[in-house]
Design brief:
Blueprint (H helix, E strand, L loop, with lengths): L18 E6 L2 E13 L3 E13 L2 H11 L5 E12 L5 E7 L4 E4 L4 E5 L2 E7 L11 E7 L1 E7 L4 E5 L5 E4 L3 E5 L3 E6 L3 H5 L7 E6 L2 E5 L6 H6 L1
Length: 225
């Protein structure tokens, strides 16, 4: 058969290195040799000798997820082979986490990650985030983290001189060292009159960066995640 479908743009080539790589803008490929972790239901294809097993979060993690809606429904992928991961045709990106780094990210944006990374659910201080509850996911250690985002994300530097205000439904994640607090940009009177629809933001201060997606969570998306 012939046609554009079979061009090199779409045809999968053999993996050239172990671990995580971006297959295309909507998909991440992982060459597994041992174990890796991914969100449940994110695998779209695989080949080789791989086993997929639902991974529990422990009593504490289950409780936080039940109360807040935040948490990562994970699966462990073990063996030798290749697997491809995607989520609703969202754009895919890879973050390199190095020793001493700490990256806080909304659980809805996590696709897959190396087993060498540590993961916990932590409180977002001063925030009641509609899209992610009061809890976000914090990654530390050394390894790669695969993220998904609706559209192309903005990475905005944060400094002592220039703090950043982010819509609470648009935030993807931020680096260690940033403090968070809730900022109300409208008066109560303005809100009662209808307001602008942008009443509350998450204020990030310190030195680092914040990742923002170019869309806000819809009620349907929020409920799903």
């Amino acid at each position: 058969m012939k046609g554009d479908l079979f061009s090199s743009e779409h045809m999968v080539q053999p993996a050239t290195a172990p671990g995580m790589t971006v297959e295309n803008s909507k998909c991440i490929r992982y060459a597994v040799n041992g174990e890796m972790l991914a969100r449940q239901g994110a695998m779209i294809a695989y080949r080789g000798d791989l086993q997929f097993e639902r991974k529990g979060q422990g009593v504490g993690g289950m409780l936080k997820r039940a109360v807040t809606g935040e948490g990562l429904p994970l699966m462990a992928v073990r063996g030798q082979g290749e697997a491809w991961f995607a989520n609703e045709a969202q754009n895919c990106f890879i973050v390199e986490v190095e020793p001493g780094d700490e990256f806080t990210v909304n659980g809805r944006n996590v696709l897959c990650f190396d087993a060498s990374l540590s993961y916990r659910i932590a409180t977002v201080k001063g925030s009641g985030i509609a899209g992610g509850g009061l809890f976000n996911s914090v990654f530390t250690g050394q390894g790669r983290l695969g993220l998904v985002c609706e559209g192309s994300p903005l990475v905005i530097p944060v400094s002592q001189q220039y703090p950043v205000y982010v819509d609470t439904d648009a935030i993807v994640g931020w680096s260690a060292g940033l403090s968070t607090s809730l900022h109300r940009s409208q008066s109560i009177g303005s809100m009662l009159r209808g307001g602008s629809g942008e009443a509350v933001q998450l204020l990030l201060q310190g030195e680092g960066f914040v990742v923002v997606r170019p869309s806000e969570a819809t009620p349907q998306k929020t409920q799903q995640h």
